[in-house]
Amino acid sequence: xxxxxxxxxxxxxxxxxxxxxxxxxxxxxxxxxxxxxxxxxxxxxxxxxxxxxxxxxxxxxxxxxxxxxxxxxxxxxxxxxxxxxxxxxxxxxx
Length: 94
Prior knowledge:
Blueprint (H helix, E strand, L loop, with lengths): L1 H19 L9 E4 L5 E6 L2 E6 L5 E3 L4 E3 L27
């Protein structure tokens, strides 16, 4: 019975750590959502390291992958602004 309680306590602690955005202090590797939708944190040996998704992709916290924006729920996170540096405007037509 004590072992079952210990295992449940460990799982509850791991869920609490993941939900508050802190890395576990052991050598567990995991990914956490970032405040910006196109970034995520990678936990390695208790350290939280900021990572970036490739261009035009957002971090999907349900799948732990960088994914197309249509597949990602960015509620509560910042959505990146795409600069209009490569837009070509044709002023020759009316």
